[in-house]
Design brief:
Helix content: 55-70%
Order of helices and strands: HHHHHEHEHEHEHEHEHEEHHHHHHHHHH
Low-confidence stretches: 353-359
CATH topology of the largest domain: Rossmann fold
CATH superfamily of the largest domain: P-loop containing nucleotide triphosphate hydrolases
Distance between the termini: 27 Å
Structural class: alpha/beta
CATH class of the largest domain: Alpha Beta
Strand content: 5-15%
Number of strands: 8
Mean pLDDT: 79
Oligomer: single chain
CATH architecture of the largest domain: 3-Layer(aba) Sandwich
Strand order of the largest sheet: 3-2-4-1-5-6-7-8
Number of helices: 21
Shape: flat
Length: about 450
């Protein structure tokens, strides 16, 4: 997320962090590099100009000049102004209107509205709501089938109809929600170009019919400045209440996130950071600014840990570790809990200066963990609990069933036996089983 702009800004600000005296020349050089970094990230030119003007004014003020660490103070100023640029404070989704609350997603073709609809419904369900998904996209082939499939995969409820009139579909979905006790309806609408008057008129008519409490624009973070132009046009025609940024796990340069709130005044509610329905994060301007500036995001890391870790399961595994009864079943459960956090590279983004780690060096270890998980899944319960039952024939069957080699199965068994011997020695010490396994060669 924001890797390109983060690297450039860190190069610029690292020169300031150790400066003991800010003069006009050093400030001008830093602001010049800062301007180039922001423009290369596709941040709106007017936004860049305003930001640098405020940073220059504050950097020349007494709060910086009288500081014992003026370089650090300038970095602090940049961080504070970037937080304001990204929206200031976190804006949460407010469910408005009578029950069922209506949320309507709009945006350009290919921005990720259908995926976002499923992700948002997942978020609402976690918050204790009972959402109903509905598609009003009668133009894109198989659009409604795609939403239905995503809903099925995530055990979400979806409204299904063969009708071809968006207005009729909207009324029918609302009525079904009332009858079935759903308190929120999330509508996925057809993607449209902001220059397409017919499609924009259709969206405006749907708004009149639904009277939604929330009309959310779904912006593709890879689209650059065109996304800012598009949301501005949509904002003129529709009563937008917020935005969602998609594909922030890709090669997004960050310009959309840093421009959209400043240009339109609309809050950014969520950020899509992956393909899974769980990969939708609340947008925290202060945390995003910290990530961009290489300061990490420990609060988000803690929240992920609280959501992903089953405390009871962790306690049972820890007890088995101390009792030297830890099995491959327990190891598999540990891997599953880790997978809830996402990839190691995503976790490192949340740590201060985590991008300084060579992500390519992590690939073999993550690949080994995937292979080990597949191998363990191919074993029977008896084999997982009693490794001594695995002979040459079973080893061949396990390798075939997991799509790995016999050498890979043998390597897992050898490393696990070595780890178990270590556990017996350290059985009364508390610790993470995965950390112990890495110490004896797992993932290498």
């Amino acid at each position: 997320m924001f890797e390109q702009i983060s690297q450039r800004l860190n190069q610029t600000l690292s020169m300031l962090r150790g400066v003991v005296r800010i003069d006009e020349a050093s400030l001008a050089a830093a602001l010049r590099d800062l301007r180039l970094a922001l423009l290369e990230a596709d941040v709106n030119f007017g936004v860049v100009k305003d930001l640098l003007g405020v940073v220059r004014e504050r950097a020349q003020g007494q709060e910086v000049l009288d500081s014992l660490t003026p370089g650090q103070q300038v970095v602090k100023v940049v961080h504070e102004e970037m937080v304001k640029l990204l929206g200031g404070t976190q804006a949460s989704l407010q469910l408005k209107g009578a029950t069922p609350h209506v949320i309507m997603l709009v945006g350009l073709q290919g921005a990720g509205k259908t995926t976002t609809a499923a992700k948002l419904s997942q978020q609402l369900r976690r918050s204790g709501h009972s959402p109903l998904l509905a598609s009003l996209d009668v133009h894109r082939p198989a659009a409604r089938e795609q939403l239905a499939q995503m809903a099925t995969n995530s055990s979400l409820q979806v409204f299904v109809s063969d009708g071809d009139d968006p207005m009729v579909l909207a009324r029918e979905a609302i009525e079904k929600a009332r009858l079935t006790g759903h308190d929120v309806v999330v509508f996925d609408t057809a993607g449209r170009l902001h220059l397409d008057k017919t499609m924009m008129n259709e969206a405006a008519e749907i708004v009149k019919v639904l009277k939604p409490g929330n009309v959310i624009y779904v912006a593709d973070s890879l689209a650059g400045q065109d996304a800012v132009t598009s949301v501005s046009v949509f904002h003129e025609r529709l009563p937008l209440t917020g935005t969602v940024l998609t594909k922030l796990d890709g090669d997004a340069r960050g310009g959309v996130a840093m421009s959209i709130a400043a240009v339109t005044g609309l809050p950014i509610l969520y950020a899509g950071v992956g393909e899974r329905t769980e990969d939708l994060e609340a947008f925290h301007p202060d945390r995003i600014a910290s990530r961009i500036l290489g300061m990490g995001d420990i609060l988000t890391l803690i929240e992920k840990a609280q959501e992903g870790v089953d405390i009871e399961v962790a306690a049972k595994i820890e007890k088995r570790l101390r009792d030297a009864t830890f099995t491959l079943e327990d190891f598999r459960e540990q891997i599953r809990q880790m997978n809830k956090f996402g990839s190691m590279s995503k976790l490192l983004e949340l740590l201060p200066m985590g991008r300084g780690v060579d992500m390519k060096a992590l690939a073999p270890a993550e690949g080994d963990m995937r292979s080990f998980s597949a191998i363990i899944d191919s074993m029977s319960v008896e084999e997982r609990r009693h490794l001594q039952t695995i002979d040459r024939s079973r080893c061949r069957r396990i390798a075939k069933g997991s799509g790995t080699r016999i050498q890979d199965v043998n390597r897992l068994l050898k490393q696990f036996n070595t780890a178990r011997k270590l556990m017996k020695k350290l059985g009364r010490q508390r610790g993470d089983p995965l950390d112990m396994m890495r110490n004896v060669g797992f993932g290498r």
